[in-house]
Amino acid sequence: MLDTRVAQSAIDHAIALGADFAEVFVERNKVNNIATLSNQVRDVASGIDFGVGVRVVYGAKVLYGYTNSTEADELKRIVSQLAAKDRRDATVATQAFDFRTAADIHGARRILSRDAEVRDKVGYLLDADRAARAASNLVSQTQGACGQREQAVEIFNSEGLHIRDTRHYIRTSFQVVASNGSEQATGRRNDGGLQGWEIVETLDPAECGAEAARQALVNLSAKPCPSGRMPVVIGNGFGGVIFHEACGHLLETTSVAKKASVFHDRLGEMIANPVVNAVDDGTLAREWGSINIDDEGMSTERTQLIKNGRLVNFLADRVGAAQTSLPRTGSGRRQSYRFAPASRMRNTFIEPGTASFDDMIRSIDRGIYASHMGGGSVQPGTGEFNFAVTEGYYVEGGRIRHPVKAATLISTGPDVLKRISMVGSDFALATGMCGSISGLVPTTVGQATMKVDDILVGGNA
Known about the structure:
alpha+beta; PmbA/TldD fold; 42% strand
């Protein structure tokens, strides 16, 4: 995508101005997004974005700029502006580029550059709408979306790295609104992966529409949730969003290097119940948060974060590793060429255990089963969180009694880790988008159903 001589001239210029490290990140991003409202197509949009990001590092200082130009003079101008206050005599030498293409384990077939397959995607969403409406006459509206992206990247740096990779992303979402005349409730189903539109071969639009409708109807019949401290069983899949948001960010060197994480000095210590094993794995085939290489050109890997309750690792990008003396983990990620990379999660999850779901429920005298989790808010640094339960049930006397609505879970990541007492075997993953200092990136969360012995539940009963 970028002439090697142009990249070399920009990097050579940065090193000549005394930079310790220089990098050129090239990106071509092609997207297609489709949206439906009930049985109508609301929007079809496509586009291409191209740009070049330049990173210059002086010691612990990172300088970043970007452009849409591929001209050597423009890239050198950006380098000169970035280095204006830090330029000095050269301290390192550049190395000749050693080109390679990243190995791809994901094997996308129905990719965007061949055919957007708009008609087929619209058909899938409209079939899901019909299935949702067939579930009940209380279904008043549906909203569907299908987004596909093809991201080609090329990375050059002053250590001789020259590598290319292409990533194929696909994601569908479907929401149902049910109404009984006085109240309304919603249900949702999301699917996605690092693959092409061939994902539809493993999806059933009727199942998608029926599941979203089921959740909406359950919530429509739900009673107000009681409040107070109580045990909670958190469902599998997207239930892992609590670990991601309230704990995972505290294990990134983005916060660890600044000592803005409560875990920054806890490496090797017990920070969770021994039943907790947490992993961030970028190597899972075709998963939404997977990558072949990170946005610094390093091959991705599987990183064990917590082992039997003990903190054993952090997530480190190049700059974070230099600041903390931790090993790099292939976790340097960015939304696009407009952002410098930072340590970010990929597929982050709590590994499955052996506990029985029935045993978890039977162990509760009065509590909540949060079968599906939604979004919430998290306080950076402490991991204090407030997450909504999108489908929940009241548990009493060891039995699930009835659905509840307007439930929230309130605690801190460090406290929740210690209070997880049982982890099931019904492991599942779910897709999401994660925002941080380097923008929005695709991430996967996951876990098996697990029991938290004591957590503050907010409700309006």
